[in-house]
């Protein structure tokens, strides 16, 4: 048995226009969602206390909510975490002298109601730390995007720079939009995933862009549409294979990685799918919009760099 | 044809051998152990005590392996965590207060590997369990305390220079000195400008006032000093807790991270870390009528403090202190002739000199030991902009714990008596030994991870890694046949290098997101080979190149693309490391190492193997299994 991906000769750009419109709609919708619903920030960013407990038997959520409400924690979020034997309690920042004590109080309350309760994790984050982290994270994301832009600009011509970075922004915004739409918890590991996605998405776009540039230089064809189409076809099997292997491990991580890795793997899975699509359609669409032509690649000094083994 | 340079083969073999060697210790899981340390600073646990412990363990039927000396303490490996729990309690009961017994992990790495410095990867708290604190240093108080001492210096300076002043006050960032006439103002102005370089001085002639404002450089300096001094003090306290491999690190301008692996009881750690206590030795103002103390108004140059446990009889002390807690180099708890608890104190040379000078001149006069504790209370309030904010208010509590007549000139060693209980003496000794905190601290973040969750996380990480790896290996063989096998060898080699490098770098810590980074690397690492292999296919198919030339061209042409594609991910890893904290940095580290090593194995490694398979033949191959 062998897996063979047939050599394709698809006219990708035939449906470029409608897909371009789709991408614009997706991005606008995502920005709208982020503006209105925002992200469901996790403990890392909001501050507060999380207590994770486990017991050998099923834990009833309503019972836990009951004892917590009696104990003065009526605003606690109580939910199962991974299995029905694990429960996570989240409370907003408390206005008491020692906020980190709240976690222990919560555990004490719940363990009165549930026999053999085991404390698995307590996390307390002060509100200031959370706010700072949010600012810092936004900065890191902007910095990553800025550096990517610089790098692509330096390595490719400006049109490719715009095209790949457009694809990059598209991916990041749409993934963030997904997190906003489904209100998935956005914590530090998810942020790491989004940043990793920036690298992955650009990686994908660059491979395609590299090939397009190569074909512009070495091919006898002059029609940009034909050249881009050929480059897309020739990189297609690589794009599919790499996205597929990456998805394989992400699925493994999603299934076996435990609850804490769910958000991480989800963000990357969405990112890989969207990134693969965008490296085919968004980048090429932007190139077409900018009327890319053979003349854009007649940069002599780039030549010798490329011949390096 | 073997055109592939020989040095690259050697490089490949050398890298794999070294990384493989240093990756080996990870195959030997750490065993649960107890660590026994003397509770006295610099003290040692002797053989006799250990023999007593072994007999007790034998009697209780707890199995243990050969103990090992680590620095001043003993590490005793046990069979499982239940035995560890029982042994810990037993050891504490058998050896009593002289030792601190902590739960730890003992390495089981063979000696020959340890001799070359090989050790397993450091595991983050999310994988091994423990407590993480992020402590915020209260800078306002740090600055206030410094200003107070500057105000004292200023008063002293003017007294020495015979400049008459009306008063010296301080508030947030300034010192203000008022004078009666412009003559004194001028004299003070010149002196102050020379001596107080930390301030910018402005003069207000109409009100005969000098205003000294702290420069921003001086503020930074105070902050740096406060944070560094606190870090050192916390480090000492953490060591006293008897925790194995604790981390105490400065983070940013005003925060300190403390990580205590394996610790379950966060409240005890919190109590020890958060206390700010210091001692001052001061002379009692015996020339003042003690009855004045009742009025609550202290005569100039003195202060009134309550006596511990006896609120009705306050003591009047001179403002100047003879020795402060930070001059104490050692403090040990002991018992005096009557069996009462005491603390034996050793001073550094500056402290000893002062002590000697003052006690020599004041024999038969009373000296008091003043205990000062600063507590910081945190309140979460909503500020004007509607944001939640934590406000620290610190309160100072000071009381006299002991007054004694000076019978003789004291030097660098003396003792404090008058303590209520051995426990109190032990805690005072600990706080003195650990050093005072330069500024109050409060907990900005606290995370406790239970040990079972840590074990679950490791298992989850390993499972997902193995499944992901198996799927990728299978897919690559199906897709690229022999070349796929070669890529798989490279992938395994890549993992060996990754683990080896992670074990080699002392600061690298494996966290759960770090494992995710490794898993992700496994998925993305094949990309370089996929790029190369697809190129080779294309060269044969579209350009009709013969196999060997196709291989050559495939590697050559894909190189630039691989570089371009991976450098961007490397940039992301660097940003993640710079901006992230703790566990996210773990992700950044594995991502970075993984990308570099996958480029190496995919470009240098697979090329070498393919050359061995196809390059050595007498006749050039006509087809490739790709």
Figure out the total of helices of chain B: 16
Low-confidence stretches of chain A: 301-305
* C-alpha termini separation of chain B: 20 Å
Number of helices of chain A: 11
Question: Would you mind describing this structure in some detail?
Answer:
The complex is a heterodimer of chains A (309) and B (626). Chain A has helices at residues 16-36, 43-46, 61-70, 101-113, 127-155, 158-182, 188-218, 224-256, 262-280, 282-289, 300-306, and strands spanning 40-41, 48-54, 77-81, 83-91, 118-125, 185-186. Chain A is α+β, with helices and mostly antiparallel strands and 309 residues long. In chain A, strands 3-4-2-5 form a 4-stranded antiparallel sheet. Chain A has a two-stranded parallel sheet with strand order 1-6. Chain B is an alpha+beta fold. Chain B is 49% helix and 26% strand. Chain B contains 16 helices and 22 strands. Chain B has helices spanning 6-23, 47-60, 81-95, 111-115, 125-128, 139-160, 182-195, 216-240, 266-274, 292-295, 349-361, 422-434, 451-504, 512-542, 547-579, 582-615; strands at 31-38, 68-70, 73-77, 99-106, 122-123, 130-137, 167-171, 174-178, 199-204, 209-214, 247-251, 255-261, 276-284, 302-307, 310-324, 328-335, 341-347, 366-382, 388-405, 413-416, 441-449, 509-510. In chain B, the strands form 6 sheets. Chain B has a 5-stranded antiparallel sheet with strand order 14-15-13-18-19. In chain B, strands 2-3-1-4 form a 4-stranded antiparallel sheet, with helices on one face. In chain B, strand 2 (68-70) and strand 3 form a beta hairpin. The mean pLDDT of chain B is 82. Chains A and B meet through strand 5, helix 5, helix 7, helix 8 and helix 9 of A and helix 9, strand 18, strand 19, strand 21 and helix 13 of B.
């Amino acid at each position: 048995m062998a897996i063979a991906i047939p050599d394709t000769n698809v006219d990708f750009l035939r449906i470029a226009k409608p897909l371009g419109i789709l991408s614009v709609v997706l991005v606008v919708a995502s920005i709208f969602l982020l503006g209105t619903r925002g992200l469901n920030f996790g403990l890392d960013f909001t501050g507060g206390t999380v207590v994770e407990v486990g017991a050998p038997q099923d834990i009833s959520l309503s019972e836990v909510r009951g004892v917590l409400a009696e104990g003065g924690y009526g605003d606690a979020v109580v939910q199962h975490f991974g299995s029905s034997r694990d429960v996570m309690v989240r409370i907003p920042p408390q206005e008491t002298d020692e906020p980190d004590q709240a976690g222990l109080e919560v555990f004490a309350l719940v363990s009165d109601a549930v026999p053999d309760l085991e404390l698995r994790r307590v996390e307390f984050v002060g509100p200031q730390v959370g706010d700072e982290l949010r600012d810092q994270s936004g900065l890191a994301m902007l910095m990553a995007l800025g550096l990517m832009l610089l790098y692509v600009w330096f390595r490719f011509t400006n049109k490719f720079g715009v095209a790949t970075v457009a694809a990059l922004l598209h991916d990041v915004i749409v993934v963030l939009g997904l997190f906003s739409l489904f209100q998935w918890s956005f914590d530090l590991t998810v942020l790491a995933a989004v940043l990793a996605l920036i690298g992955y998405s650009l990686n994908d776009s660059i491979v395609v862009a590299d090939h397009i540039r190569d074909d512009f230089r070495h091919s006898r064809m002059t029609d940009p549409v034909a050249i881009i189409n050929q480059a897309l076809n020739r990189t297609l099997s690589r794009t599919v294979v790499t996205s597929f292997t990456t998805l394989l491990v992400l699925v493994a991580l999603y299934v076996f990685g435990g609850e804490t890795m769910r958000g991480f793997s989800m963000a990357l899975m969405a990112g890989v799918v969207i990134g693969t699509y965008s490296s085919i359609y968004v980048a090429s669409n932007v190139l077409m919009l900018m009327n890319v032509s053979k003349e854009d690649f007649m940069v002599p000094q780039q030549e010798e760099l490329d011949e390096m083994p | 044809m073997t055109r592939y340079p020989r040095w690259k083969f050697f490089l490949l073999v050398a890298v794999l051998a070294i990384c493989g060697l240093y990756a080996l210790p990870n195959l030997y899981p750490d065993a649960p152990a107890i660590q026994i340390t003397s509770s006295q600073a610099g003290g040692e646990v002797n053989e006799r005590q250990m023999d007593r412990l072994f007999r007790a363990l034998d009697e209780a039927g707890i199995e243990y392996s050969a103990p090992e000396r680590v620095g001043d303490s003993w590490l005793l490996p046990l069979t499982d965590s239940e035995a560890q729990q029982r042994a810990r309690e037993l050891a504490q009961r058998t050896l009593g207060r002289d030792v601190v017994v902590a739960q730890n992990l003992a390495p089981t790495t063979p000696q020959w590997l340890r001799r070359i410095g090989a050790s397993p990867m450091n595991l983050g708290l999310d994988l091994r369990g423990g407590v993480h604190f992020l402590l915020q240093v209260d800078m306002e108080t740090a600055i206030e305390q410094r200003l107070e001492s500057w105000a004292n210096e200023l008063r002293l300076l003017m007294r020495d220079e015979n400049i008459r002043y009306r008063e010296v006050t301080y508030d947030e960032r300034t010192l203000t000195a008022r004078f009666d006439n412009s003559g004194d103002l001028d004299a003070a102005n010149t002196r102050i400008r020379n001596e107080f370089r930390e301030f910018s001085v402005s003069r207000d002639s109409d009100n005969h006032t000098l205003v000294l404002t702290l420069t921003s450089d001086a503020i930074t300096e105070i902050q740096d000093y406060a944070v560094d001094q606190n870090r050192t003090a916390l480090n000492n306290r953490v060591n006293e807790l008897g925790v194995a491999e604790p981390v105490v690190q400065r983070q940013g301008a005003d925060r300190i991270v403390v990580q205590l692996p394996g610790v379950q009881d966060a409240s005890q750690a919190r109590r020890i870390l958060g206390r700010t206590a210091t001692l001052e030795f001061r002379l009692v103002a015996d020339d003042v009528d003690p009855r004045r103390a009742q009025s609550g108004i202290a005569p100039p140059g003195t202060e009134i403090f309550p006596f511990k446990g006896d609120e009705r009889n306050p003591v009047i002390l001179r403002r100047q202190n003879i020795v402060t807690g930070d001059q104490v180099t050692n403090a040990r708890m002991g018992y005096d002739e009557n069996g009462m608890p005491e603390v034996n104190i050793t001073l550094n040379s500056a402290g000893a000199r002062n002590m000697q000078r003052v006690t020599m001149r004041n024999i038969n006069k009373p000296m008091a030991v003043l205990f000062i504790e600063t507590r910081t209370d945190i309140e979460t309030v909503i500020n004007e902009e509607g944001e939640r904010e934590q406000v620290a208010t610190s309160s100072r509590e000071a009381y006299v714990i002991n007054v004694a007549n000076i019978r003789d000139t004291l030097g660098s060693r003396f003792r404090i008596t008058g303590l209520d209980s051995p426990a109190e003496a032990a805690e005072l000794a600990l706080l003195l030994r650990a050093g005072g905190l330069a500024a109050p601290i409060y907990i900005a973040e606290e995370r406790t991870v239970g040990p079972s969750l840590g074990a679950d996380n490791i298992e989850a990480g390993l499972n997902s890694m193995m499944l992901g790896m198996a799927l990728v290996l299978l897919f690559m063989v199906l897709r690229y046949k022999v070349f796929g096998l070669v890529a798989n060898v490279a992938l395994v080699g890549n993992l060996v290098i990754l683990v080896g490098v992670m074990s080699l770098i002392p600061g690298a810590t494996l966290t759960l997101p770090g494992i995710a980074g490794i898993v992700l690397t496994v998925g993305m690492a094949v990309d370089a080979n996929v790029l190369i292999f697809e190129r080779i296919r294309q060269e044969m198919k579209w350009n009709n190149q013969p196999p060997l030339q196709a291989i050559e061209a495939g590697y050559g042409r894909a190189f630039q693309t691989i570089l371009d594609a991976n450098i961007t991910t490397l940039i992301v890893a660097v940003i993640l490391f710079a901006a992230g904290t703790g566990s996210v940095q773990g992700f950044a580290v594995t991502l970075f190492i993984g990308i570099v090593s996958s480029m190496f194995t995919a470009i240098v490694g697979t090329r070498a193997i393919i050359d061995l398979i196809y390059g050595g033949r007498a006749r050039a191959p006509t087809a490739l299994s790709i």
